[in-house]
Every structure is written in C-alpha cells, then in structure tokens.
Amino acid sequence: MPVNVTNWLKEIIEHNLSRPVLRIERVRPLHSLARNIENINILGSPAIIAEYKRRSPSGFSANVSYHDYVRIVEKHVAGISVLTEELYFGGSYNDLVAIASMVNLPILMKDFIVCEKQIEVAYNIGADAILLIATILTDKELERLYEYANHMGLEAVIEVHDEQDLKKVLPLKPRIIGVNARNLKTLEVSLGSAAKVLEKVPRHYIKIAESGIKSRKDIEELMKKGANAFLIGTELMKNPLKIFRFVKNE
User: Fold this and answer.
1) Where would a tag sit more exposed on the chain, N or C end, judged by fewer CB atoms within 10 A?
2) Active-site option among 16, 56, 85, 110
3) Is 53 a known active-site residue?
4) Rounded CA gap, 98 and 94, in Å?
C-alpha cells in the first residue's frame, strides 16, 4: 500500500486504483525524453519541460486551451508534461491523447501512479514517460512499477523530495531523477531545499528540477546545483509566452 499520504493524496490513490484501463492501440512512436534533454544540454542550453495542467491543490487554476499552449511552447522545449489526474488537477487521459497527436515531442504522463494498469494506459494513450513519486510508494512498489515501465518501453522520471526519498531511489539506478521543490504533505515550495537534494544526486543521472521555478535566474541557480532540465507548469500556464524568458539568457 502506498505510504506517507495525506487525505487528498489518499483520495487520489483510491480513485486511481479504480480508474479503468483504456485498451486502445498506440498510434505514435516512442520519443526519448532523456535523449532530448541530453541533446539540448550539449548545446549549452537548459532543457525545459512545459507542463499542461488545469488546476492544482495549491490553489492554482488556468483556462488555457491545450492547442494554444502547445503551439506556443512546442519549438522551445525538450518535452511536454500532461497532468492526467482527475480529482484535484482537473486532468484527463483525453488531454494527453490530444496533445500527443499534435507533437513529435516526448510526452510525460504526470499522475500519481500506484499500479501497473496506469502504466499500461500511459503507453496506450501515447505517453513516452511516466512519473513515479518515491514519497507515496514503498520500496517494493517503486521497484515493481519502475521495472514494469521499462518492460513497456517507457522512461520513468522518479521523483524525490528529500534525501530520504533519494536513498530509496538510488539502488534502482534510474536514468532520470526529478527533484520536487514542493512538499506534497504541506504543499510548501522551497527551491533551497531542492537545491540541496540536487547536489546529493550523482552527476551521471539526468536531474529534473520540478516546481517553484519562476524566472531564468531560478533556472541558472538550479543549474549550478546540477539540474539538467526544468519542469515548469504554473508560470507557463499563466503566460505561455514566458517560455522565451526561460530559454533565453536576457
């Protein structure tokens, strides 16, 4: 059973366990998020993952169409993250299907994944990578779901929040580790805490800084701590044109 969950997380997990499997045939080839990040880094640029989300438990909400959002950011990002969680983020599998049909970019399915059928759905609807959150999974669950994602041909971004999460994750030797500046229990954001965790991640991993990034300065500071990529949702949902500030050093 998933661990360390607050009431809203528990509700999400129970809901996700009951969501049906969408047995549709995948129509797009797989795209590697890791490779895109590495290729952008070779050019000396920060790799941005633009996140499409309708709302969040922190109080954020936006009314931007996925079509307009994607058309603005698609040429400037390493990939697109799509929230598919229904209860608290207003996401849907349909959002991911629609966005995946528009782009030849890696798509990260952002959800609270706690069972294999969610990974199967991710593959079927066109995702190329999934998020596994160390904080809400036991060691055995994390290992099992990571192996199943590999079996399905999907990349896994394994998300950590603190050093305890990191110790749980490192034995799996994943290619990509996400460091979330947001504490899922309190919803508080601390880029300083994320920076400390980033410094603890060995250099050979691809490291994604998640949450709380509001400026190019934030990106540069996190790059100094070892971040290779930056998952940005709220700021881009408020104003997708801000992508130009994030990718250019002005």
Assistant:
1) C
2) 110
3) yes
4) 6
Q: Is 224 annotated as catalytic?
A: no
Rounded to the nearest 5 degrees, what angle is found at the Cα of 81, between the Cα atoms of 62 and 149? 145
- 51 catalytic per annotation: yes
Query: Does the reported pTM lie above 0.70?
Result: yes
Active site residue 116: no
pLDDT of residue 57: 87
Checking if the pLDDT of 31 tops 60, the result is yes
Residue 137: helix, strand or coil by DSSP? coil
Does residue 74 carry a catalytic annotation? no
Q: Which of 103, 114, 94, 104 is nearest to 12 (CA)?
A: 114
Task: In whole angstroms, give the CA distance from residue 76 to residue 21.
Answer: 33
- Reduce the DSSP state of residue 49 to 3 states and report it: strand
Question: Whose CA is closest to 46, among 183, 185, 225, 167?
Answer: 225
Label the pairing between strands 176-180 and 155-160.
parallel
Active-site position among 56, 124, 211, 228? 211
User: β-strand 229-232 against 206-210: which pairing, if any?
Assistant: parallel
Higher pLDDT, 204 or 60: 204
Rounded distance between C-alpha atoms, residue 245 and residue 174, angstroms: 31
- Residue 159 appears among annotated catalytic residues: yes
For residues 212 and 77, what is the distance between their CA atoms, to the nearest angstrom? 18
Among candidate residues 56, 124, 180, 193, the one labeled active-site is 180
Is 190 one of the catalytic residues?
A: no
Task: Map tokens 């983020």 to a residue.
Answer: 89
